[in-house]
Amino acid sequence: MSTARDIRVIVSDVDGVWTDGKIIYAGDRSEVKEFNVRDGLGAKLAQRAGITIVLLTSRSSPALLRRAKELGITELHQGAANKLTACESILANLGAGFHEVLYVGDDLPDLAPMLRAGISAAPSDAASEVRAGRNVETRCARGGRRHSAS
């Protein structure tokens, strides 16, 4: 397992990690996602420390595109059918290895890249298989979705 000093890239799933996992449809074309401002601050602090933030999701959402732009996250990868394959490609483009990655995920598609990452994290309400494969648990307070590592 890597240490925090080894981390150059944070790769994160979105739904269930940056959000509470709910997807609200407003009519036929609109989708509503709720993001916590504290997660944005965490991303900005990591960027200031020279860490690249990568958002990797199997879904596609205009709301996520907007949030990524607000935070200056240029590595936004939506519609990933296979997260391990996508992660390998992203890391090759960034010139980074899995030992330099903190991967944060909550569901089964995240498990394969989590098991390869230097450090892996998952929310306390992640799928049981994902919780078993993580190194760090993030906790959230329902209603505020406040994260803290333990």
Description:
By secondary structure, the chain is an alpha/beta fold. It is 33% helix and 22% strand. It has five helices and nine strands; from the N terminus they run βββαβαβαβαβαββ. The chain has helices at 37-48, 62-71, 83-94, 108-116, 128-133, and strands at residues 9-12, 24-26, 30-32, 52-56, 75-77, 101-104, 119-123, 136-139, 148-149. The two termini are 16 Å apart.
How is the topology of this model organized?
Layout: E1 9-12, E2 24-26, E3 30-32, H1 37-48, E4 52-56, H2 62-71, E5 75-77, H3 83-94, E6 101-104, H4 108-116, E7 119-123, H5 128-133, E8 136-139, E9 148-149
Parallel strand pairs: 1-4, 1-6, 4-5, 6-7, 7-8
Antiparallel strand pairs: 2-3, 8-9
Low-confidence stretches: 141-150
Largest sheet: 7 strands, mixed
Helices and strands: which structural class? Answer: alpha/beta
Secondary structure tally: strands: 9
pLDDT averaged residue by residue = 89
How much of the sequence lies in strands comes to 15-25%
User: How are the strands ordered across the major sheet?
Assistant: 5-4-1-6-7-8-9
| Measured distance between first and last alpha carbons | 16 Å
Proportion of residues in helical segments: 25-40%
> What's the overall geometry?
globular
